[in-house]
Write a structure and sequence with these properties.
Layout (H helix, E strand, L loop, with lengths): L1 E3 L5 E3 L3 H6 L4 H18 L8 E12 L15 E11 L2 E8 L7 H11 L7 E3 L7 H9 L3 E6 L5 E6 L20 E10 L11 E7 L5 E6 L6 H9 L2 H12 L11 H24 L6 H22 L7 H5 L3
Parallel strand pairs: 3-6, 6-7
Antiparallel strand pairs: 1-2, 3-4, 4-5, 7-11, 8-9, 9-10, 10-11
Helix pairs in contact: 2-7
Amino acid sequence: MLKTTSNGSRHIDHSSIGKRLNQLEVKYFKGIYEDLVLSYNTNFSKQEVDKFHRFDSTIITLSGKLLKDGLNLGGKPQDRLIKISVSLKDNIPASVRICKEAAEASENIALKRAINQAKVAKETILLFDRGIAKGDTFNELSESKQYFITRLNVGRKYVQVRENRDNKAQTSNEDSVIEDSSLTILSDEIINLYNQHGTRINCELRLFKTKNQKGEELWFLTNVAYLTGQEVCSSYKRRWDIEVFFKFIKQHLQCKHFISYNNNGMSIYLYCILIAAILFVIYKISNSLTGFKLALLRFTLSAEKAMIKDIVSFCGGKPELVDLKLFSP
């Protein structure tokens, strides 16, 4: 934006977009995002519904000179953190939550709030990492009939209720889970955990102790009764999809470089990023594209061409000539 000073000179104000974002209504962009999620679920979601709902958080660190509204959760005194909890369902970010309280440094709190806020369908299996570790949280999820699969720290104290000898259970949808042959199942136990006060929780969970090809022991915890041990382990690997999503929005959608530094502007910017991410997924599906790099290049060129056509049309030109003049060999 060109600005004129008191002495008549003119200069460009590079922060004008950020200042504008600070004053716009967040609910407008949130509404577009939520409507797009609904439209995707109606028109583009797989017919064989993905049974997994992945949850995770990511942190973006910025200088306190720029960011005043972020969290200070340790590290350098001048650093501020932006923590975002996201759920991934059917390849799109189905819900998002910006953490604003210091208590949400703990994933036990941040992810629990994200799960409660998200619209989790019945029979969906929640996938999350070891950030959620409280036995009381596992108990609450089980009491609310929400299925989950997660990792448990090796050596965690528990009480064995019984050994589960029926480890040949069949899944309700055999095509939805691929068994993982890279892990050896050592045991399948029905257990009770302890809460943070050392009190035994009367909630029966399944604990799978496994060993990978390097000889490392891995523990998996679930309240799903109908999966085998191999299916539980391979299902947990689907959680990695959300890590790929975080990498995508940070490296290619500039999620780590905000152009506004208060809560209002950052919220709007975040919703714009998620809108672009969903549109990219829709573009891939609509054009039967696989992979990432080539699809992203084609998506960028298509978006650029659409914007040029809009500008030409707005100026009274002939948008149908854009393809001929700019994009023909």
